[in-house]
Amino acid sequence: MNTLYYAPGACSIGIHILLEEIGQPFEAKQLDLKNGAQFKPDFAGINPKSKVPTLVRDDGSVLTEYPAIAFWLAATNPAAKLMPATPDGQAMALQFTDHAVSTMHMQAFSRMFRPANFAPNEADAEAVKARGRELYEKGFAVMEKALGGKDYLCGDFSFADTALFYVSMWWVKRMEGTLPANVAAHYARMLARPAVQRVMVAEGLA
Ligand SMILES: N[C@@H](CCC(=O)N[C@@H](CS)C(=O)NCC(=O)O)C(=O)O
Q1: Is the pLDDT of residue 120 over 90?
Q2: Model's pTM, two decimal places?
């Protein structure tokens, strides 16, 4: 059985959703990031990067990094239809996933959430946060355009949509931001999916 290490409301929620969409048994192990459980030997021995999501697969091998885990789950569970059918569609799904994770999360959200990681000088914190907000909004503008006339990023639902979901959720719930119209509709569509609702309950966010 696959085991997902996650923290409630963290980026791992997108992988949690993919596992629910797949519908095969899996184990979800909660990690207390606030108390530094990710740095303790038990977990650091599994993922030396000390990050969630971390997926320990049936054979004991470990997969890390959101885009890689999402791609692998989609590729190995064709019946769940999380992977676009053509190489063009698959590349597009990876492109959107990477934009959400590497730019909107790691660059934009991280600047707003932990400005000290980007500026050693406390006096620069507000400027760093403002740059984070700017990058976040720029990221949403790209997603907004991509969603024009579509329900999901690649047309049909794919693994990429869970990455946009979590950065949208952070924007709404943690940054008290307003989503542009198409992204807001996508967020509502995601929240209406039974798998997403089960995960919101499981992570204590409903
Ligand atoms: N590049 C990683 C980012 C994962 C990441 O930053 N996860 C955060 C939670 S949203 C984390 O584990 N933070 C723990 C820490 O930084 O100590 C990925 O794509 O999976």
Answers
A1: no
A2: 0.97
